[in-house]
Structures are given as C-alpha cells and as structure tokens.
Design brief:
412 residues; alpha/beta; Aldehyde Oxidoreductase, domain 3; 3 domains; 5-stranded mixed beta sheet; 3-stranded antiparallel beta sheet; 8 strands
Length: 412
C-alpha cells in the first residue's frame, strides 16, 4: 500500500470529512435553486408561497439540531458501553462505523441546507420558480431524513452491543489477515534468519516511542534503488518501538542525511491500528474473552464464542500463500511468526480460563483442530499453545473430576 493510499484510507474512516461534504452539498443545493429563473424555461403548474417554504425549512432546522444532538449522545453512550463491556480497543471500530457516519452527515447536511435556504429566502433571492424548486428539494430532503431516521433507529438497537462489537473486531481482523496473505512479505523478500545481521549493516533507529503503524515499502524501495542499498526490516506493523529501536538495517554507502530520510518512511504513533496488523485484531479478540472471564463479568459464553472466532481466523491464516512474486528485491522483511499469532490469540484465554473446565475443553479442541492444518511452523505453534494451556489447567483446575475429564478428552 502506498503512503498516500494509507493516509486517505485513514481519513476516510473519520466522521468530519463526510459531514463537511454533506454540508457543502446542502449549501450548493440551496444556492442552486436561486438560478431557477434562468435554467427553468417552462411554466410550473403550481406556485408556492414564501411562508410555506419557510415553515418547512424551520421544521427541518429545529428538528435536525435536536436529532443530531440526541444521536451524538446515543453514540457516546454506545462507545462508553462498548469500552466497559468489551474492550476500549474495539471502540475505534465503532467510531469508524459507516452507517453512523452517513446518518449523522445527512442530519448535519439537512440542517445546513435549511439554514442557508432560510437566509437566502429572507433576502428575496428566490422568485416564484425558485421557491417552487426549493419546495420540491425541501420535500426530497425531508424524505431522505425520514429514511435515515428509520435506518438510524434500526442501527441504534445493535450499536455498542457485545455481539455486534465482536463481529466488527472479527471482520477487521479478517480483512487485515486477507490483506497480509495477499502480500505476506509486503512485496519484499522473506528474511527468515532475522537473528543474523548482514555484515557491515548500518541501522536506522527510532527517535520516537510508540507503535509502528505503517512502513512505506514502495518509497523505501525507491531510495534503495537510487543509492544501491539492501534493506533488512526486522519489525512489522504493531511492534512497539522506543528511542534507539532498529527500524531497518542497511548495507551499502549511507550518510546521515540519507539515514534521516529513510527514517521518515516509518510511521510511529501512540496506539496500534487494525490495518497491516493482523496480530492486533487477534489480541483485541483475546482481550474481549479475558474481560468476559473476569469475576465482575462472569460470562464464559462470550469467551467460548471468541475461541471459535479465533480458530476461524487462524484457519484462514493457515491457508497462507508463499508463492508471491517479489516486487521489491532490495528489501528483506522479517515475516510474521505463527507462534506470535497463537500467543496473541490464546495466551490470555488459557491463563484466565485455567480454572474453568468448559474453557479448557473448548480450547484444547480448537488447538487440536489447528494442529491438523497449515505448515509445520503453524502446527508446531498450535501444539505449543496446547501444551502451555494443559500446564496452566493442571494448577488452575481445583476439582479432581475436572482434571480427569480434561485428561480423558486429551486422550481421545
């Protein structure tokens, strides 16, 4: 993914740009009706009084202000509920919800349209054809608002609920996995032996503290081509960086100016995101299950649901592609490790559910199923997690009958 594509995808998930677009559309629509006398060449069969149009616009402006305020309050409550009952990391997905953005932007656009139309109407800029056109547009806006209200009511019923939030996290994680599988090494060569550094390599180090969000692979490749360099990338998106962390190792002739320029191709931010970071989605799903298993929540059913979802997501990863063409031959990337993915997905579940037989049984069944698919590293990672879960269960289960049941299940 190019840097500007990544920036645009980030902006596209924000509410403000869509609200601005709908607002400008409302202004343009209100002003377009002033030219009705010039481009409307036929005689309209009806005339609309100024008072009739003004009353409709007044209804829209007052109601849209109230509805928008109420909707913002409902959003805040849903976000707070999701943060308390699921995990704060999932709230970002709710804030990027497209239905919410469309509905709120429609309300704001209708409000701005009514205000601008009322101002222009008061100045006497609308003639008889203009008022008729404005009346038709106003009726259409009312119809649009009613449709969006019905859509919003149906959406509010599910917004912030545990099941809906988990669905969004799973969808975001699945998308990140699919994107990574389409380019497992981001177009670079796989660097499997990342513990052995190339001889004479120079490191570009981080000057910030935070999480690596994005690597501008294409721009980095162009710099390597221009200066005859080989670049070795030890980190993936989602890795935590501090001042002095090695972002990339370079072989070839480099100077301080070039090192600084290459350092700008790495975006480091205070928090992780789901884009380019499949591990983050798996970790968030595990957090949901961990909170469900806490004594305050006591909801093992949600944890069992998460185990099934994690198994489904990792099964997709097991179908990964290794025969991907290398687009940037001068770059070498340390690939995502299956052991790290399994740790993100199941370690919290195995720890917090160590004393619950239903969690341990489902966990062992899932890990056993995952040991039958994927490559050798994938199966080995599943087996290691299963063994660690057994060790935790051996000390976590307090009743002999539960231990015997788990042992019998493992024997089968």
């Amino acid at each position: 993914m190019k840097y500007w594509h990544w920036v645009f995808s980030r902006i596209k998930r924000k509410l403000w740009w869509q609200a601005v677009l709908y607002g400008l559309l409302g202004v343009a629509t209100a002003l377009a009706a002033t030219g009705a006398e010039r481009w409307l060449t036929w005689q309209l069969p009806f005339d609309v009084s100024r008072e009739a149009v003004e009353s409709l616009l007044s209804i829209i402006s007052s109601s849209m202000l109230a509805v928008t305020t109420f909707s913002l309050g409902a959003m805040t409550s849903a976000f707070s509920g999701a943060a308390n009952s699921v995990t704060p990391r999932a709230v970002t997905l709710l804030m990027e919800d497209r239905v919410t953005h469309n509905v709120l932007s429609s309300f704001i656009g209708a409000f701005i349209f009514s205000i601008v139309s009322t101002i222009v109407l008061k100045t006497g800029s609308y003639g008889e054809p203009g008022r008729a056109v404005l009346f038709v547009i106003t009726v259409a806006v009312i119809g649009l608002v009613v449709m969006q209200l019905l859509r919003w009511i149906n959406h509010l019923v599910r917004l912030g609920r545990v099941g809906t939030t988990i669905d969004r996290v799973e969808d975001a994680t699945r998308t990140a996995i699919q994107q990574r599988l389409s380019s497992p090494y981001l177009g670079a060569n796989p660097w499997f032996d990342s513990d052995t550094l190339p001889e004479g390599a120079t490191a570009v180090r981080s000057t910030q503290i935070g999480y690596l969000q994005f690597i501008d692979i294409e721009a980095l490749s162009k710099l390597c081509d221009a200066h005859d360099l080989q670049a070795y990338l030890p980190l993936n998106s989602g890795n935590f960086c501090y001042q002095g962390t090695e972002l990339v190792w370079l072989t070839g002739q480099v100077d301080d100016e070039l090192l600084e320029k290459i350092g700008t191709k790495f975006v480091i931010a205070p928090s992780r995101t789901f884009e380019q970071d499949p591990r983050f989605g798996l970790a968030v799903m595990a957090e949901v299950a961990s909170r469900a298993l806490s004594p305050a929540t006591n909801d093992p059913g949600t944890a069992l649901d998460v185990i099934g979802r994690q198994t489904r997501l990792l099964s997709q990863w097991a179908e990964g592609r290794d025969d991907v063409e290398v687009q940037y031959p001068r770059l070498h990337l340390n690939p995502l490790r299956e052991a790290d993915l399994f740790e993100d997905a199941f370690m919290l579940l195995a720890r917090d559910g160590a004393g619950l037989i239903e969690i341990q049984l489902r966990l062992q069944k899932s890990l056993q199923a995952l040991q039958t698919i994927g490559n050798a590293a994938f199966r080995r990672a599943a087996r290691e997690q299963a063994e660690m879960a057994q060790q935790r269960a051996a000390t976590g289960l307090t009743h002999d009958c539960d231990k015997a049941r788990l042992k019998a299940a493992l024997a089968r």
